[in-house]
Amino acid sequence: MSGPVLYTFRRCPYAIRARLAVAVSGQRVDLIEVALREKPEPMLRLSPKGTVPVLHLGDGQVIDESMDVMHWALNLADPEGWLGPNDATRAAMKALIDENDGEFKHHLDRTKYANRYDGVDPEYHRSKALVFLAKLDGMLATTGALFGEQPLLADWAILPFVRQFANIDRPRFDREVGTALCAWLDRGLGTELFVDVMKKRS
């Protein structure tokens, strides 16, 4: 392998968002699919915390945070304008992504993986997660994307996490969230870009 190497896991929402940005930017990156129960030693040497994504650049630099991978790719090429038109939009997108990665992910994990946590009520955490999803639905109701007519960085950074929540029980998800959010999710999942980055690899 001569170029950058991206260690990834197909279903991990952090890895999905990284692959989306790499793909849309057109960067040539060698993908290595990781078995999370048997993480490869080269990846652990690069990033001892053992989570994906991990991007190893040709100059030896290591990027092991998903949003940093997205920005690395899009700063090299942003053909669809994901980074947004101005500083105000970028600041608003960062705040929404931080909310997704913080409070919403906290409740998502305790809804989907309740057995991993002591004394949690998955229905309580589901109700809390739905507050954030209702906020997204309200943002999507008039424009179809979170920050305008076209999906930007925030849409693609958040969509894999909404997908993960929806996949817990898709019929229930469809009943409990707004139609705008359901339509936004299905549009994103149906794009050629998303389908391509989700192809199974050995």
Structural category: alpha+beta
Tally of discrete structural domains = 2
Strand order of the largest sheet: 2-1-3-4
**CATH fold-level topology of the largest domain:** Glutathione S-transferase Yfyf (Class Pi), Chain A, domain 2
- In CATH, the architecture of the largest domain is Up-down Bundle
CATH class category label of the largest domain: Mainly Alpha
The strand count comes to 4
Q: Total number of helical segments?
A: 9
Roughly what is the average pLDDT, rounded to an integer?
96
Distance between the termini: 16 Å
In terms of quaternary structure, the protein is single chain
Q: How much helical structure, as a percent, in the residues?
A: 55-70%
Structure description:
This protein is of the alpha+beta class. It has two domains: 75 residues, Glutaredoxin (3-Layer(aba) Sandwich), CATH 3.40.30.10; 106 residues, Glutathione S-transferase Yfyf (Class Pi), Chain A, domain 2. It is 56% helix and 6% strand. α1 packs antiparallel against α6, α4 packs antiparallel against α5 and α4 packs parallel to α6. The protein is globular and about 50 Å long.
How would you summarize the topology of this molecule?
Elements: E1 5-8, H1 13-25, E2 30-33, H2 41-46, E3 54-56, E4 62-63, H3 66-76, H4 87-112, H5 122-140, H6 153-166, H7 170-176, H8 179-190, H9 192-197
Parallel strand pairs: 1-2
Antiparallel strand pairs: 1-3, 3-4
